[in-house]
Design goal:
The longest helix has about 30 residues, at about 290-320. It is built from 9 helices and 12 strands. The radius of gyration is 18 Å and the shape is globular. The protein has helices spanning about 5-15, 45-55, 100-115, 130-140, 155-165, 215-225, 245-255, 270-280, 290-320; strands at about 55, 70-75, 75-80, 85, 120, 145-150, 170-175, 205-210, 230, 260-265, 285, 335. With about 325 residues, it is an alpha/beta fold. Helix content is about 35%, strand content about 10%. Strand 10, helix 8 and strand 11 form a beta-alpha-beta unit. The chain has an 8-stranded parallel β-barrel with strand order 4-5-6-7-8-9-10-11, surrounded by 7 helices. A two-stranded antiparallel ribbon has the order 1-12. The chain starts with a helix and ends with a strand. Bound molecules: flavin mononucleotide. Flavin mononucleotide binds next to loops.
């Protein structure tokens, strides 16, 4: 199976909800929620695309070659690439139901494990996504970051976090930016913003807060005991007119220093984009929609092929910029 075959097959089976565009950039599906689009005018997604296109990379191949090691050590494990697969829920609600949430979650987790990257899964009102994420983690030595919704009933958030800890999950997350997410339908009333005190920072596995966009938010996450933040607007699905996620990373890094892991999320599509995110200060890059395409077109094998192609693209950019390790991908490697 080749990646081209994976994408062709996905194109046959994902319509009409996903058109499997040549470049997944938020133009064709703008405003389609339910669906895969970003909210309203789609600007929170397209702003990310536009900013990334403005970041330029400084080439330098005049150096003694030391090879390229793109591996990342995080949460006590080493990954082959600094790539995280985003939590995506609603295979029948947002997509066309060609895959169930369970099949998608297992394809993602197994493919990510084979490629040496870290997968995430979601949570929804009926509990099915949470359950299959937990099952997939159990089957794969805890290798799945279940991303809990910010349940208004805080006891539900805490008890699920403790269950993930007991199951030996590598980490868990909460997409606090879903607090007012209209796509949750009537279940939106079950969600709420979370104060520092309500966040489950004392659970003993690392906790990532997803949907942080300001230095103040990052500082609150640090005080609440988070291990990291995911700089995200849910792929532009929860608010319009947000700045590019990558654009704000330097401000967040300045606010929290190295106290928190910072994960870039939104419109990252290539190894070049991942390199830019890391040079702007991220520790890892999270990618969403294309992994769903890879799973539809080729199951776990499609996920593996796609993840490895991203990793090899990143290593090629590292070669072209005199970066032997991720620590070499510093701000001087890019220009704005
Ligand atoms: C259809 C769809 C469903 C999503 N479901 C979830 C979810 O259940 N939990 C969550 O934290 N994020 C969810 N997200 C957001 C993604 O995790 C991620 O932030 C976003 O897709 C990143 O942007 P990208 O797709 O441009 O890479 C969803 C995104 C889409 C498009």
């Amino acid at each position: 199976m080749t990646l081209d075959e994976v994408w062709s097959r996905a194109r046959e089976i994902m319509r009409p909800n996903c058109r499997v565009c040549k470049v997944c950039n938020g133009a064709a599906c703008r405003g389609e929620i339910p669906g895969l689009g970003a909210m309203g005018d789609g600007s929170s997604w397209t702003n990310c695309v536009e900013f990334l296109s403005r970041v330029k990379i400084n080439m330098d191949t005049v150096y003694e070659s030391r090879g390229q090691d793109a591996s990342l050590e995080i949460f006590g494990r080493r990954f082959r690439y600094p790539i995280f697969a985003a939590p995506i829920g609603g295979m029948s609600h947002n997509y066309n139901g060609a895959m169930t949430d369970r099949d998608w979650t297992f394809a993602l987790v197994r493919g990510a494990k084979a490629a040496g990257i870290l997968p995430f899964s979601g949570d929804n009102a009926n509990g099915e996504q949470y359950a299959c994420g937990l099952d997939a983690a159990r089957e794969n030595e805890g290798l799945n970051v279940v991303t809990l919704k910010p349940w208004a009933d805080n006891g539900k958030l805490i008890s699920r976090a403790k269950e993930l800890e007991a199951a030996g999950c590598i980490a868990f997350a909460c997409d606090v930016d879903a607090a007012g997410f209209a796509n949750m339908g009537s279940a939106v009333s079950q969600l709420a913003p979370k104060s520092e005190a309500e966040l489950p920072g004392s659970v003993k596995i690392p906790f990532l807060l997803k949907g942080v966009m300001t230095p103040a938010g990052a500082e609150k996450a640090a005080r609440a005991g988070c291990a990291g933040i995911i700089v995200s607007t849910h792929g532009g699905r929860v608010i319009q007119s947000a700045p590019s996620t990558c654009e704000v990373i330097p401000e967040l890094r300045a606010a929290v220093g190295n106290d928190l892991k910072i994960i870039a999320d939104g419109a990252l599509r290539t190894g070049t984009d991942i390199f830019k995110a890391l040079a702007l200060g991220a520790d890892a890059a999270m990618i969403g929609r294309p992994f769903v395409v890879a799973a539809h077109g080729g199951g776990a094998e499609g996920v593996r092929l796609y993840a490895e192609s991203l990793g090899e693209q990143l290593k090629n950019v590292m070669l072209m910029t005199n970066c032997a390790a991720l620590a070499d991908i510093t701000a001087d490697k890019i220009r704005l």
